[in-house]
Fold this protein.
Amino acid sequence: MDKITLTHDVPVPPAAAFYLFVGEIGQWWPPLQTPDPARHAGVVIEARPGGTVSFRIGGEDRAWGEVVSVDLRSSIVFDCWRRGEHRHPSRVSIRFNDSEWGTRVTFEHDGWDDDNAGARARYGDWPLILAEFVAHTRRHARGIRVAARDPRGVA
């Protein structure tokens, strides 16, 4: 079964892109892409092998992934059961590489087999979710440029 592959160039260095994806995921993840948008309080990735990927719903964390590997600043891989395939998770891999424009972010979701193939069609929302990440990096980059021009905010 075909993997889902999305590639975006973002205007920040790889270490910043990694941080914005992992460390600030709760700020950019769209609430409508959660199980309970009205009570959505964020998303959290514990960036260590065995760490969880969770939705914060009200005062509760609902795990939907487990980190397999992490290379700070360049990649993170986690098993995923966001669409309910707990017993047969798929795998998400995100790589952050230098590019002319800042960072090339390569997102891959694969690991589909006979046991979880039915869930594959329910992951059509990744482009919408990652568009929010790209917008978040652009807002961050604009802030860096303004601050770099003049620390007092004077043009």
